[in-house]
Amino acid sequence: MARFVVELVFGDNVDDRLAARPAHRDYLATLVDQGRLLVSGPYTDQSGAVLVYEVADETELREVLAADPYTPAGVVAETRVHEWQTVLGSWLRD
Q: Does the pTM of the predicted model rise above 0.70?
């Protein structure tokens, strides 16, 4: 399994994002239940969000991101993806 940090930069269409947010959060909850999403949350200034995924590879990550309701809603101006090598942290699994 690989871990990825994904940064979403929100576009200016706040009304569209807020309309899509309940479906987005429901989708993320299913990913948490599946063990594919470790943590997520928006910046306090609502300019974007950070999500940490644990998936097989970048191909699976791209599929997960494409299925997110935010994608067809067009509310994300930029998506930054970085594979992440975790080393230390109290929440890391063995």
A: yes
What are the C-alpha distances in Å from 16 to residues 3, 25, 28, 44, 76?
29, 14, 18, 19, 10
90, pLDDT greater than 90:
no
- What does DSSP assign to residue 68? S
- Cβ atoms of residues 39 and 89 within 8 Å: no
The angle subtended at Cα 36 by Cα 32 and Cα 16, nearest 5°, is 65
Neighbours of 87 (CB within 10 A): 6
Instruction: Give the residue carrying structure tokens 């989708």.
Output: 27
Angle ∠(29,43,81) on CA atoms, nearest 5: 70
